[in-house]
Design brief:
- The protein is α+β, with helices and mostly antiparallel strands and 369 residues long.
- It has two domains: 162 residues, FAD/NAD(P)-binding domain, CATH 3.50.50.60; 151 residues, 2-Layer Sandwich (D-Amino Acid Oxidase, Chain A, domain 2), CATH 3.30.9.10.
- The protein is elongated and about 70 Å long.
- Strand 19 and strand 20 form a beta hairpin.
- The longest helix is centred in the first third of the chain and has 20 residues.
- The structure holds flavin-adenine dinucleotide (FAD).
- Flavin-adenine dinucleotide binds next to helix 1 and strand 18.
């Protein structure tokens, strides 16, 4: 049976960043992807925001990798001319009773070493964004937007030029520990091969890949719930330059319906939070009224008739209580040394793609190579 050193499962932004990173140093890397092209799932269905890392619990991987990832991503964009913009963002307390929450969030940002962040007054909000409503806001200057397709294209080309073999239309349906190797099979071909190291970046299916290799995903709390987020776009250009967010949900299930602008200046509202059993990306027009209610708290003079259903994305949210962190680990303690699982890579996964790749490379260089 053919043997390779590394197999990466999934060509979303995380799998691509890992492929680009590992291929700078190692050879013999294969990447298996279900779809006919890279980046067709969550990585192309999100807000395209480069987060600064304010929200996440102190010392979590999300906080650590977001702070590092934010800087790495801006540098990468500048180096390779990836379209992006350091817009800045306002997190707004819309009335006085939200100010205590806002201050708590600011302290969280400080604990997470987020720089270029300050609390501003009602007048200062107006001076920055005259259409915004708010009594006070956190102004985060290191938040921005990115063209995620250009980012993935660059990562793909780097990996390909470094010799990574991309196998599209290859859905992994067999993963078995076999001595020092993992036996791998795919749905579309009657063919099996062996790999010394397997990196599971299968996004919404990453728990299923873990199950395939025999991990009890209930016991280890690896089970993913689909958490859909829909967007509405606005047909009129408005003079808004910064991203505008409400105070987030307490459990961080989502960041609240917020207002983003894309690099073309188009306004979008969303994403909301809806747990679903079957994957679907339809945007239900009947949600328009509730989106409007959320958005008009943040922004004046909106017209509901100008809000149109846009796209939706699905978060791979880890089941279980509280705010769950990213799972990124070599599964040595489960007798699966060489399997690196990445599970629950929801937001800020796009921001973190390069820091996640560095983190995985470190696991490999310190433990597996
Ligand atoms: C609504 C929403 C808004 C978001 N907004 C932001 C944001 O503004 N900023 C931010 O930083 N992050 C954001 N995120 C999070 C970010 O989009 C994700 O963290 C990131 O895209 C995850 O990338 P990935 O490569 O892990 O997953 P994916 O992009 O889902 O890639 C996984 C890949 O694995 C493949 N795959 C699955 N199963 C198999 C199999 N069996 N065999 C082979 N291949 C397989 C899939 O086809 C897919 O291509 C948002 C997410 C959502 C849903």
């Amino acid at each position: 049976m053919e043997k390779v050193k590394f197999t990466i499962i999934g060509a979303g932004v995380v799998g691509l960043a890992i492929a680009a990173k590992l291929s700078e140093k190692y050879e013999d890397i294969i990447l298996l992807e279900s779809n006919e092209k890279y980046g067709q799932e969550t990585s192309s269905r999100n807000s395209e925001v480069i987060h600064s890392g304010i929200y996440y619990p102190e010392n979590s991987l999300k906080a650590e990798l977001c702070a590092i990832g934010n800087k790495l991503l801006y540098n990468f964009c500048e180096k390779y001319n990836i379209p992006h913009k350091r817009t800045g963002k306002l997190i707004i307390a819309v009335d006085n009773h939200e100010i205590a929450e806002l201050e708590k969030l600011y302290e969280q940002g400080q604990k997470n070493n987020v720089d270029n962040m300050q609390i501003i007054s009602e007048n200062e909000i107006k001076a920055l964004e005259h259409l915004a409503n708010g009594k006070a806001a956190i102004y985060s200057k290191n938040t921005g937007i990115i063209d995620s397709h250009s980012l993935m294209k660059q990562l793909y080309h780097q990996a390909e030029q470094n010799g990574v073999v991309f196998c599209f239309n290859n859905t992994v349906n067999l993963l078995e520990k076999n001595g020092n190797y993992f036996k791998i099979g795919v749905e579309q071909e009657d063919y099996e091969f062996q790999s010394e190291i397997v990196i599971n970046c299968a996004g919404l299916n990453s728990d299923k890949i873990a199950k395939l290799v025999g991990i009890d995903i209930e016991k280890h709390e690896y089970k993913i719930r689909y958490c859909k987020g829909s967007y509405f776009s606005y047909s009129q250009r408005l003079p808004i330059e910064r991203l505008i967010y409400p105070i987030p949900h307490k459990d961080l299930a989502g960041l609240g319906v917020h207002i983003t602008i894309d690099l073309g200046g188009r306004l979008r509202f969303g994403p909301d939070v809806e747990f679903i059993d079957e994957l679907n990306y339809d945007v239900d027009i009947s949600k328009r009224a509730s989106f409007f209610e959320g958005a008009k708290k943040l922004l004046k003079d909106l017209d509901i008739e100008k809000m149109q259903p846009d796209c939706a994305g699905v978060r791979p949210k880890l089941a279980g209580a509280g705010v769950r962190d990213f799972i990124i680990k070599n599964e040595k303690d489960k007798n699966l040394d060489g399997l690196i699982n990445l599970i629950g890579i929801e937001s800020p996964g796009l921001t973190c793609c390069l820091s996640i790749a560095d983190y995985v490379e470190k696991i490999i260089s310190e433990n597996l190579s």
